[in-house]
Sequence to fold (331 residues):
Amino acid sequence: MKKLHLITFAIALVAILVSCTNKKAGQTKDRSVGGTSEILLVTQNDEQWNGSIGQAVRDFFEDVQYGLPQPEKTFRVAHININALNDMFKKHRNIIFAEIVPDLPNPIIESQYDWQSAPQYAIRIKAKDAATWIKMFDNQKDELKKIFDKNERARFMDFFRPMANAKVMETLKNAYGFTMTVPEGYYVASNKDYCTWLRKEETDKSFGLVVYQIPYKSTDDLNEDRLIKTCDSVLKKYIPGPADGSYMALDTEFVPPYFEIIPDFPAGYAVEMRGQWNTVGEFMGGPYVAYTIINPEATRLITVMGYIYYPNKPKRDLLRQVETIIWSLKF
Fold:
């Protein structure tokens, strides 16, 4: 692993991001292991896991994910001690090493992308005591989450890419000018007026992708209230429910949409919206995530919304699947 002496957090952050792109051409790695949305914390002893270090990692990564009907952790943090780190555990997709070195003058970070497998990110934080270790972790945990989220999407895309649905993808390319890796099982339920509804129906669950575009006039079109109103009007008009007169809508009262700017979205600057949808006139609902982007000519706003219907069952990992599909969007 590459050693980085920390002078400032900015230096550490740049080093982490650079290491993520430092892969040798033609290099092949074993497929990474680990459960979906799982992080492996490797400590020197059980006291670190049960104490403030383990608690800090769990408090952040095991926080409840917003927008899911049942409480579900964003990640699951698994644990082993360093003496149990065998070849299998070294291939875990997301690894954090905690190391306390009492006579260490300055904290150190060692990090590497695709260390023993791919996709993988391994990071080691060394510090003289637990308080210093936690301070360094807190300084970079948001960037770590972005990297681990990226690894989860890469894992799903490894499965989706070989079974891409060429017919559906061609429909999207012709209508909107972008490519998006949509796996087999999805079909075009409707496609009119620059609104395309893709569905995947299974015995006990449903997946959906709603793609629509509107003229882009100014940055006011990216206003949160306007994005909500536009999405609601599209859903009401084009996404009917199972009963006559019923239709899909965003929940704006009990689980208000949460927004985040995504500057590094593959298709460019994007606005992420996530929360819950429901069905007016029916007892149906579930989580969704949507991304709104400006097309390269800066003439249209394109939104892709992915949603899940899987009543009374865990939905975090299923939502990650539709999120992965949307993150493959490129002009």
About this structure: Helices lie at 9-19, 46-50, 52-61, 87-90, 130-160, 166-176, 224-238, 316-327. The chain has two domains: 2-160, 164-327.
